[in-house]
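TICKET: design request
STATUS: open
ATTACHED STRUCTURE:
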């Protein structure tokens, strides 16, 4: 907790809240409407009940998770509120990055060595550009074991009243647990969910 800035240690050995908690609180408060609509829309639509659903926002080159809905399946990834992950390895992050102008992505990752969480993670900016082009064409992002081995995530963006990207929602599941047809159905359900959330935020 000290290393990631959630706690700070005083010279006398006592712990106090660290500077990163302020960043997390700002991220959450800045996206309260997004989180509220996520909380309303998930039970309203009743989609993907077995799978874990999360919502996240982009902060620099990371995504910060601000909401979750655990699924009924005993298998899955545990996402903690406030957890940060590199955007380029996650479905939420890739979907958000794909909405940015290419020049902004280049500036964001200029001179950066991409962190790889698994052997399948994107390793170069060139690979990232190619993946983002695929995400733009497809309309959603897929994390195929790039964050956690053996897990698949599908992510899509949520837009606000001015058509801006406010964050993304993703569904997470064991990689071998779904057929191609089921994954296509999951993607369609996710798209319906983010469209419902976007409408709740006043998106065109």
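STATUS: resolved
RESOLUTION: sequence designed for all positions
ATTACHED SEQUENCE:
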């Amino acid at each position: 907790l000290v290393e990631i800035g959630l706690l700070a240690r005083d010279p006398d050995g006592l712990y106090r809240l660290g500077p990163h908690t302020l960043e997390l609180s700002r991220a959450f408060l800045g996206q309260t409407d997004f989180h509220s609509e996520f909380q309303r829309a998930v039970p309203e639509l009743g989609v993907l009940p077995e799978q874990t659903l999360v919502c996240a926002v982009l902060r620099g080159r990371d995504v910060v998770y601000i909401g979750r809905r655990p699924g009924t399946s005993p298998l899955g990834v545990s996402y903690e509120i406030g957890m940060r992950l590199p955007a380029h390895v996650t479905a939420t992050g890739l979907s958000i990055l794909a909405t940015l102008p290419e020049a902004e992505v280049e500036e964001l990752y200029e001179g950066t060595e991409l962190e790889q969480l698994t052997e399948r993670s994107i390793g170069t900016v060139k690979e990232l550009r190619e993946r983002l082009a695929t995400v733009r064409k497809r309309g959603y992002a897929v994390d195929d074991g790039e964050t956690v081995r053996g897990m698949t995530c599908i992510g899509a963006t949520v837009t606000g009243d001015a058509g801006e990207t406010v964050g993304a929602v993703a569904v997470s599941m064991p990689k071998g647990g779904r057929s191609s047809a089921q994954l296509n159905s999951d993607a369609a359900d996710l798209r319906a969910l983010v469209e419902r959330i976007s409408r709740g935020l006043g998106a065109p």
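CLOSING REMARK: The CA atoms of residues 76 and 95 lie 21 Å apart. The two ends are 41 Å apart (CA to CA).
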